[in-house]
Write a structure and sequence with these properties.
This protein is mainly alpha-helical. Helix content is 86%, strand content 0%. The longest helix is centred in the middle third of the chain and has 38 residues. It starts with a helix and ends with a helix.
Length: 448
Amino acid sequence: MSYKEHIKKNISLALPVMLSQMGQVLVGVADSVMVGRVGVEPLAASSLANSLFYFIFMFGVGVSYAITPLVAKADSIDDHRESGVLLRHGLLTNMVVALVLFLLLMLATRLIHLLKQPETVIVLSVPYLIVISVSLLPFMLFQTFRQFCEGLSLTKVPMYFTIAANVINIMLNYILIFGKLGFEPMGLMGAGWATLIARLLMGAGMALYVIYAKRFKHYREGFATIKIKVERLKKLLELGIPTGMQFIFEVGAFAAAAIMAGWLGTEPLAAHQIAINLSSLSYMMASGISAAATVRVGNQMGRRDIPMLIKAGRSSFVLAASFMTICGITFITGKELLPSFYVDEASVINIAASLLVIAAFFQVSDGLQVVGLGALRGMEDVKIPTVITLFAYWVVGLPMGYLLGFHWHLGIEGIWYGLLTGLSLSAIMLLLRFHFLTQKKLSYFSKV
């Protein structure tokens, strides 16, 4: 395969994942817009509860990612039974992790007052957090079967279920939040119940489809195996836990940047949120390319075709860099227009415009680092990338942002220069890691 053919293959795998990720982001936007119509306090409560939820939730998502490279590796040699066995063990692992995370979230509802938020916000956020925490269980069920399908290069299947669930979520939001079709207006709790119902349907639908659809019949023998093997559970956790920590380090870094932005005042914080929201759209799209990289690299690992693995990885990097360059150009040309969709205040728009210029420069780095993590995950290399993520964000990026922002008085722009430095360092180190590992494997297999 030529690089052009590799890029076409990457796009065909990545596009459904990108659309799914975009759908999830848009549902979050719809939630905020609808809850915001109810009042400022429900919107603040939603923000507080979702911040706690997603910080813990993303660890579970990372753990579920362990299924994909292992299934891709088994699929590359048509080992259907092994793929089914991995699905069974992955389901057990993910549901146990989901239960543990749910209990942590229940503990968070007891300790949320320690965050020193307004009492009215806490009163509204606790019951809402409980409801969306329950939705973690069906979502992890969905994630299990989603990552299994992506490992088989069937990225369109979970996309259809995600889009359907997103439509249901938005419809239920409208009905339950505002009290339509004979329902009493539920406000913020309506959004919570809409999320729970949509995720229950999404998880159950995805599971039933994979279990009973004819296209998956070859995998049922392995999935029906009763015996649980510790070594497979251990392998899943060895890949999943570091991946979960990668998400924690990254999500935590941006959360810490938001806290520092809040120390500067309301306007810098508002501008920060606008720029981060726009940046997250491009990041979620790049994560689709990352998912494709995991599958493509995992396939070639199973076949022990290292030259093809290198092409699959490099073509993913080229695709991500090209896409994120376009996003960066869009941020620069629309630096004043884009923030105006969020707010009318000229001062906030001006600050956000300056941040979007910085964001434009770290678009390529952001895309390369997330694809680097995906490609290395396909090679079952997660421990060193986790250390790289910790070092780049928490040892270099955030401290530099603090120094630039507060000691060198660059304000919010200084904090963002720190993020730019952390993302760039992470991208460089992950690219070097991919090059080092592939050259090492190329040398090894050439001697065998």
